[in-house]
């Protein structure tokens, strides 16, 4: 009996402990009852569950206090537009739930809706200059398609950049316009670009004036509370004069890079006397000392600033007028980037371009392209609530880190933020990497030069095969080279023909892997027996322009046939399957280089695999009399072009040339049947920001007996000069860079025995 009592006591104790541990209150409100019934029960006098008695984190003074990302004022929350209207645009959207991947499996193409027809008054909706630049960048790119059935993404034809209802660029009746779009489908696979949302006084972030539904927002001034992570894309705020293409390069020069400048920290801008965004800028005068810290503001903006001014406005205005903004940018180590009425600021991109390290004072701001760009390498964070700590923060940063931060500002500016075109294309590439079957570039690729836009992941399985990654990763190019000979004249083949001699010379090179002949001449292909013996070197001949394609194995004559389509001089830069080596030796049929010259140029290229290395050099210059770029073959003290008639380069540039360059550029080459070598030089210099490399001092590299050469045409240089200016216009700047460097072999031209020299034949040719 006593044992039974003990067992009963233990059972009751365990039951009580279990009841207390698992929460007896759950028994009072059944979990199976609807939430609404639970609330009604509580209202009728029932006990409210403890978890419903807890205050909402949204009502706290500092909702994200531990993160240090959100201003703790009620105004800050209002600015973020935290209300139920966010649900109306698909707040739970993810790529898996709000995006149709099946539209993107074949190609990643973008359809732009045509302009809306004129209304009854003969007027069309306003389109701002910046939105027109966005549309132009897309329509003139490889992303664009005019066929909506082939599109992966859709871009609105109506301007959505400025959704401030007080703005002159505000487009009205957007909901009804969206409803008339034939492919809207609640925004699925659509992308909406926006710079400004909301209006006075709260500037609510999600106040667009229409329901974006399942559309991806590419938006400036996005907050951590409103962004749909992995779906929306945060973009930078840019001004109305922002360039369509390229734009100004970064202001930092490699030979003028001091760690410390005249001012340690600087800011010059508007001060808001009251309203959202005023707290931070109203306090900046506490940091201003007029020596190494210059932070000046003005109340002198807006129509009624005098009625709203406070006691400090006059003093602030006088101090503000003492400093020039551009001078501050160029002479400051750090630039303060405080929030304005919205989280983003024009100061951010201006600081990046100037190489002035941004110090961010905008809690909760999602930085542009934050999913890909590691901003810790280029910016400093501060907290709006701890403004007085900013001087100590910037003074504590070492000179080594300042140097690295400033370098990274230039990389990011030039690769992603220097133009509207780059911002739009970066947005597309971020979305493209979310597709299930598309390769994802590494963080190293995104955060180092030349950046993700110029690193096509479809080229190879690993970025280590890219020419600009070889040296940084301690790797070397794969051995040997493929000689690609472009035949445009097609003289009769024989032992005395320039092409015959050239093939014979190449076969003697110790580094050649195979020879590929691109036959673009009108003459028929030479017979098999006419070609020189290549012994162990495979020879492949491809007849361009709808003729025959010929392949050959090692030691055999040309065999096999396939068909190529329309001829173009750009076909010399197609990434042919026969090219398996990293190095490509591009040659014209009448080149007269000897074997030592080929081998020496190849050894130089292996040390500079990201550049063009070769013999014939040309130069560009600015002609003030014509207000245009000039092109010359005269020998000067510099060069900026190495012609691909006798040059080495990495095969990746064939892939870029064919799959990345603007179709406008390729069309220019095709129409002129000229300038493809200049375009290749511009491409490589655009990627590397480095000049080509010339080897030895030979002047002539052409067989002078070839009388039909197009280079003998007197209009040749006029045409090439025209091409050069067209290319610069499409790039948006002049990528070519001048150089005075020339690579010569050891003991070159030294008065010693020729037997002591490694490349003996080089000095036997005339220069």
UniProtKB/TrEMBL annotation:
GO terms for biological process: heparan sulfate proteoglycan biosynthetic process. GO terms for molecular function: glycosyltransferase activity. Residues 481-748 form the Glycosyl transferase domain. Keywords: Disulfide bond, Endoplasmic reticulum, Glycoprotein, Glycosyltransferase, Membrane, Signal-anchor, Transferase, Transmembrane, Transmembrane helix. GO terms for cellular component: endoplasmic reticulum membrane. Pathway: Protein modification; protein glycosylation. Residues 107-397 form the Exostosin GT47 domain. It is a single-pass type II membrane protein. The keyword Ion transport does not apply. Belongs to the glycosyltransferase 47 family. This is Exostosin-1. It comes from Drosophila pseudoobscura pseudoobscura.
């Amino acid at each position: 009996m006593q044992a039974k009592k003990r067992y009963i006591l233990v059972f009751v104790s365990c039951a009580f402990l279990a009841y207390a541990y698992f929460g007896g209150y759950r028994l009072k409100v059944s979990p199976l009852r609807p939430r609404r019934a639970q609330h009604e029960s509580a209202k009728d006098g029932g006990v409210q569950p403890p978890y419903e008695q807890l205050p909402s984190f949204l009502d706290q003074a500092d909702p994200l206090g531990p993160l240090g990302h959100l201003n703790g004022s009620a105004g800050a929350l209002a600015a973020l537009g935290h209300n139920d209207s966010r649900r109306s645009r698909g707040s739970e959207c993810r790529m898996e739930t709000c995006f149709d991947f099946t539209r993107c499996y074949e190609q990643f193409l973008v359809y732009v809706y045509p302009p809306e027809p004129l209304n009854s008054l003969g007027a069309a909706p306003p389109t701002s200059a910046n939105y027109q630049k966005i549309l132009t960048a897309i329509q003139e790119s490889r992303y664009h398609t005019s066929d909506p059935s082939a599109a992966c993404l859709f871009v609105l034809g109506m301007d959505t950049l400025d959704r401030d209802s007080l703005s002159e660029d505000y487009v009205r009746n957007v909901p009804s316009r969206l409803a008339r779009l034939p492919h809207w489908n609640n925004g699925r696979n659509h992308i909406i670009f926006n710079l400004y949302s909301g209006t006075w006084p709260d500037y609510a972030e999600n106040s667009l004036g229409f329901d974006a539904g399942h559309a991806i927002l590419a938006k400036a001034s996005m907050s951590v509370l409103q962004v749909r992570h992995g779906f929306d894309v945060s973009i930078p705020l840019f001004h109305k004069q922002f360039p369509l293409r390229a734009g100004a390069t970064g202001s930092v020069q490699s030979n003028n890079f001091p760690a410390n400048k005249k001012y340690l920290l600087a800011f010059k801008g508007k001060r808001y006397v009251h309203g959202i965004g005023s707290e931070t800028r109203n306090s900046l005068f506490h940091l201003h000392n007029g020596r190494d810290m210059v932070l000046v503001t003005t109340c002198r903006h807006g129509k009624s600033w005098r009625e709203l001014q406070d006691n400090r406005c006059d003093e602030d205005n006088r101090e503000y007028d003492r400093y020039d903004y551009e001078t501050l940018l160029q002479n400051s180590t750090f630039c303060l980037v405080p929030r304005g009425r919205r989280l983003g600021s024009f100061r951010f991109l201006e600081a990046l371009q100037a190489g002035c390290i941004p110090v961010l004072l905008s809690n909760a701001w999602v930085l542009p392209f934050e999913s890909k760009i590691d901003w810790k390498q280029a910016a400093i964070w501060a907290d709006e609530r701890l403004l007085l700590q900013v001087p100590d923060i910037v003074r504590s940063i070492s000179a080594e880190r300042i140097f690295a931060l400033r370098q990274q500002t230039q990389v990011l500016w030039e690769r992603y933020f220097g133009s509207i075109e780059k911002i739009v294309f970066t947005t597309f590439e971020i979305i493209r990497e979310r597709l299930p079957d598309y390769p994802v570039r590494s963080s190293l690729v995104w955060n180092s030069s030349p950046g993700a836009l110029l690193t096509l992941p479809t080229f190879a399985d690993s970025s280590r095969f890219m020419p600009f990654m070889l040296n940084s990763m301690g790797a070397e190019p794969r051995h040997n080279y493929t000689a690609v000979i472009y035949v445009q004249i097609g003289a009769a083949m024989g032992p005395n023909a320039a092409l015959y001699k050239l093939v014979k010379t190449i076969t003697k090179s110790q580094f050649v892997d195979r020879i590929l002949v691109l036959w673009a001449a009108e003459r028929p292909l030479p017979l098999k027996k006419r070609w020189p013996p290549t012994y162990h070197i495979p020879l492949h001949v491809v007849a361009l322009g709808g003729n025959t394609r010929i392949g050959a194995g090692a030691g055999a004559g040309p065999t096999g046939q396939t068909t190529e389509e329309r001829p173009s001089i750009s076909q010399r830069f197609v990434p042919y399957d026969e090219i398996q080596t990293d190095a490509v030796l591009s040659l014209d049929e009448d080149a007269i280089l000897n074997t030592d010259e080929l081998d020496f140029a190849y050894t130089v290229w292996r040390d500079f695999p990201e550049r063009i290395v070769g013999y014939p050099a040309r130069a560009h210059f600015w002609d003030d009399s014509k207000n245009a770029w000039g092109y010359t073959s005269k020998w000067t003290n510099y060069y900026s072009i190495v012609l691909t008639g006798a040059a080495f380069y990495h095969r990746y540039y064939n892939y870029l040339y064919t799959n990345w360059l603007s179709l406008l550029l390729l069309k220019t080459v095709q129409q002129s049947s000229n300038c493809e070598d200049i375009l290749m030089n511009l491409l490589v210099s655009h990627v590397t920001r480095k000049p080509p490399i010339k080897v030895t001092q030979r002047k002539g590299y052409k067989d002078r007996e070839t009388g039909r050469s197009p280079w003998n045409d007197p209009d040749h240089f006029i045409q090439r000069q025209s091409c050069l200016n067209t290319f610069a216009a499409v790039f948006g700047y002049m990528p070519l860079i001048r150089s005075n460097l020339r690579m010569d072999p050891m003991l070159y031209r030294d008065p010693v025995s020729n037997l002591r020299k490694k490349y003996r034949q080089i000095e036997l040719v005339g220069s």
